[in-house]
Each structure stands twice: as structure tokens, then as C-alpha cells.
Amino acid sequence: MLNTVRTLFLTFLHAFQARATVQYPEEQPYLPSRYRGRIILSRDPDGMERCVACNLCAVACPVDCISLQKTEENGRWYPEFFRINFSRCIFCGFCEEACPTYAIQLTPDFEMSEYARPNLVYEKEDLLINGTGKYPDYSFYHVAGISIPGKDRGKAERERPPVDLHTLLP
Amino acid sequence: MSHLPLLAIFLIPAIILALATLLTWVERRLLGLWQDRHGPNRVGPGGLFQAVADGIKILFKQDWIPPFADKTVFVLAPSIGMMTVLLSFAAIPFTPLSGIAGTLNIGLLFILGMMGLGVYAVVLAGWASNSKYALLGGMRAAAQMISYEVFMGLSLLGVVMIAGSFNLHDIVTAQTHCWFILPQCLGFFIFLLAGIAETHRLPFDLPEGENELGAGFHTEYSGMKFGMFFIAEYAGIILISSLVTTLYLGGWLGPVLPAVVWFVLKTSGVVIFFILLRAALPRPRYDQLMALGWKILLPLSLLNVTATGTVLMLRAAG
């Protein structure tokens, strides 16, 4: 009996507490920088496309929303087209994890509603941004070389010398 | 306005229905308030038109009668629910002058009778739906409402004894010096509990307990037929609240402000308390509800009748 009255009183006191609801369109929620939202394709520090059309993202995608076609230019691979169907995408981030060149990245933006489904299919020019995204200094071709007879690691054109792991020790 | 009965006959049910619709919004806003959220606040000023939007939506929903249902009774049940509640308002004195039936000399008995008939709405709905959840809900409703009607009637006897009348107008005027909530606090408490059970509101909403029975007696109902049950329930809350106001809180009596304002203020206070109960309390088990009724409230209300009678006899003698 007394418990009931106490419950009623405590519930009534909640009228004077702060609201837990975020009034979304007027009040924007805080999104962490690693929030998995709209997918972008980034460029390396030299302004070149990072994507090498390896198809790993399309393979990793559990809902098959990525489709791309490889093309070649001076021996380097590029995507001829790169298409993400955002009406299928579940924003799991597997494509970002699979990407060897940090080209495909998820951003903290989710406001991409459309009235028609076809408008949610983003082409390469919609996805490609001018910046480097989350990894400002990373360039795949500067670090990707391996040693072959007659060439050590880091000795090729536009290749950085390999990081000496021992100097990183504390 | 006893000289304008025709106007009152159309005006009062219209106002009650509008208020019952509005109450759906009020309840959702208040529940939000007590649960640290906002509730519907988008449509119109403060979300006020949410009730209108819901009404339009429910009007345009498919009005479907299941093929296995008993069609006549299925259609009849919600209208009985609505009718009995609206008829009850005929005897409620909102101001010294108003009320459809004016000063009905058996006003209280009339309302109790209408509430008794209101059980049929729920029971027939459960029966005509011809499905197990609806039947279980209807059965529970019958047991709950009939048993709580007993204590409701008994708890009112104290008030009737002090006022010496079944006329609600006389009962209010008898409270000029002292509201009946003071000498009849036990009766008030029992009447409030019985009133919640009678309108099958939370925490006593066992006939429609969502997590056990789907939606109880109105599981098979959709569209405006469901809407009628819904609105009848909210009109029932207003009815019980205005009865509490009339019987225990001095009805329209109050200083300075006009009579009808006092009546509305007191009634809305009770309505808000009803909603607070919903926000705060869990639903008891079915046997707990019955045990509370027959083992605690029935002896208490009998005790209340005896004590009130004794005091009145002693006062009359001495």
C-alpha cells in the first residue's frame, strides 16, 4: 500500500526531470567520427583515386549492394564504374574493413532519404570525394611494394622506404 | 439548462465525445511527461491535432468483420458500450442548472444500472468474436466488472446515507459544508479502485491485457468499431472522474470561479490521477485482482456502510 503511494509519487516527480528524447530535425544528435553512415570513395594525398577495383568490398558485402567494373590505365587498375545501392546497404562496414587501400569509407551522415528508390543508387561521381577521408597520409602505392630480384622494398619509383619496425620500439 | 433540454441532449454528448478523443492525446502527452519523453508533439500546437489525425485514420481503416464472428452481436457490442456510457452522462449535474435529465431522483441508481449494462458490451464482444483471446478477455471482463460493481454500489451507500438521496443534485448540495471525501474517505478509496476496474483501465486492464490476450475482448475488432470501444473507454474515464467529483469532491461547489469551471477542474484532476496510475503501476494477476476485491474491498465497504450507519444513528439519537 505504502509502496504503491511511493511509486505514484516517484513517477509523478519524473514530470520535472530532463527529457531523454532528442528532438531530431531541430536538435541534431552527436555522431562519433567512426559512425557508419553514407559510404564514400576517397582519394590519396596526391589527389588520385585510391580505389584499385580489387572487388574485395563487393565480395565482403553481405547484401551485394556494391557493383564495380575494373579498367586499366598505364598498368594501374581503376573502377570503370562503381555503384552502391543504398536501398540495400545495411551499413555494416565490412567493405571498409575489406578495402586494402582505404578507398571505401563510411562517414557519419545518414540523412539520405529519397522519395524514389532508384535515387538511392549512387554512382562513382556521387561517391568520390576530393579528400583523403579518415587516413590523411596514407597512399597505397607508397607502401605496397615487395622485393623482387634486382629491386628491394622501397626502391621503386614513387615508393617510400619501408618503416624500420625496430625504431618504433619504445 | 433545464429549460433547453434539447440543446443539452445534443451538446453534452458532443462535448463528451470530443473530450474523450482529446483525452487520447492528453494521456499520451502525460505518459510521456512521466516517462521522461515528449509524447506526440508534432501535429498542430503541442501535438493537439494528433487526436484528429488518429480519428481520421481510424475512420478510413477497413471495417472488417471476421467470417467466423456472429455478425449481429459483433456489430451490436461496441454500440452498447458507447450508448451506456453516453446515457450515464444524462444524470451527471455539471452545474446547478444543467444536466440532460435535470434532477433525476434516481440519478445514482440510473448510472449504476447503465454501468451494469456496459458489461454487456465487453461480454458480447468477447462472445461474438468467436476466438479464444476475445472469449478469455470477455470472461475476465464479466467476472471483474460484475464483482467490482458490488463494492462500487456498496461504497456509494455511505454517501447516499449521509445525503439521504439518490439524486446527484441533492448529493452535491449536501456537500456545501464538507466534501464527502472527508467523512467517506474509505468509501472514496473503494469507489476509486472499483471505478478503475469498472472502466478496465490500467492497472486493472485484465480484460485486454496485451501481453497475455492479444487485445482481449476487442482482439477481432478493427476500424471504427474498435474506435468506438476506445472512445467509450475514455468517455468511461471521464464518467468515473465526474462521478468521483460529484460524489466526493463537492461537484460544482467552489468559490469565485463559475460552477462549471470548478466541475471541469476537479474532474480533470481525477482524470490526471487515472493516467498517473497507468504510468506508475503494474497490472496485478487475475487471482490477485479477485482476492483484492472479495477479500479486502468487500469487507471494507461493508464496514464503511456499518460505520456510517452507526454514526448517523447516534447523531440522530443524540
TrEMBL record, chain A:
Keywords: 4Fe-4S, Cell membrane, Iron, Iron-sulfur, Membrane, Metal-binding, NAD, Quinone, Repeat, Translocase, Ubiquinone
Residue ranges annotated for the 4Fe-4S ferredoxin-type domain, each copy included: 39-71, 80-109
Membrane topology recorded in Swiss-Prot or TrEMBL: Peripheral membrane protein
Region (Disordered): 150-170
Amino acid composition bias (Basic and acidic residues), ranges on this chain: 150-163
Cofactor, how bound (note): Binds 2 [4Fe-4S] clusters per subunit.
Binding site for [4Fe-4S] cluster 2: 61, 89, 92, 95
Main location: membrane
SUPFAM superfamilies: 4Fe-4S ferredoxins (SSF54862)
Pfam families: Fer4_7
Reactions that this protein is recorded to catalyse: a quinone + NADH + 5 H(+)(in) = a quinol + NAD(+) + 4 H(+)(out)
Record bears the keyword Translocase: yes
Assigned GO CC terms: plasma membrane
Residues involved in [4Fe-4S] cluster 1 binding: 51, 54, 57, 99
Role of this protein: NDH-1 shuttles electrons from NADH, via FMN and iron-sulfur (Fe-S) centers, to quinones in the respiratory chain. The immediate electron acceptor for the enzyme in this species is believed to be ubiquinone. Couples the redox reaction to proton translocation (for every two electrons transferred, four hydrogen ions are translocated across the cytoplasmic membrane), and thus conserves the redox energy in a proton gradient.
Protein name (Swiss-Prot/TrEMBL): NADH-quinone oxidoreductase subunit I
Species this protein is from: Acetobacter tropicalis
Gene symbol of the encoding locus: nuoI
TrEMBL record, chain B:
Alphabetical GO biological process terms: aerobic respiration
Record InterPro entries: NADH_UbQ_OxRdtase_su1/FPO (IPR001694), NADH_UbQ_OxRdtase_su1_CS (IPR018086)
Mode of membrane association: Multi-pass membrane protein
The keyword Transmembrane helix is annotated on this UniProt entry: yes
Reaction catalysed by this enzyme: a quinone + NADH + 5 H(+)(in) = a quinol + NAD(+) + 4 H(+)(out)
Pfam family, one: NADHdh
Keywords: Cell membrane, Membrane, NAD, Quinone, Translocase, Transmembrane, Transmembrane helix, Ubiquinone
EC numbers on record: 7.1.1.-
Transmembrane annotation, as ranges: 6-26, 73-94, 106-127, 148-168, 180-197, 234-253, 259-280, 292-314
Highest taxon above the source species: Bacteria
GO CC aspect terms: plasma membrane
Any GO MF annotation of the entry: NADH dehydrogenase activity
Extent of the signal sequence: none
Location in the cell: Cell membrane; Membrane
Assembly notes: NDH-1 is composed of 14 different subunits. Subunits NuoA, H, J, K, L, M, N constitute the membrane sector of the complex.
HAMAP family assigned to the protein according to its UniProt record, in alphabetical order: NDH1_NuoH (MF_01350)
Family, similarity comment: Belongs to the complex I subunit 1 family.
Function text: NDH-1 shuttles electrons from NADH, via FMN and iron-sulfur (Fe-S) centers, to quinones in the respiratory chain. The immediate electron acceptor for the enzyme in this species is believed to be ubiquinone. Couples the redox reaction to proton translocation (for every two electrons transferred, four hydrogen ions are translocated across the cytoplasmic membrane), and thus conserves the redox energy in a proton gradient. This subunit may bind ubiquinone.
Record protein name field: NADH-quinone oxidoreductase subunit H
Organism: Acetobacter tropicalis
Lineage: Bacteria, Pseudomonadati, Pseudomonadota, Alphaproteobacteria, Acetobacterales
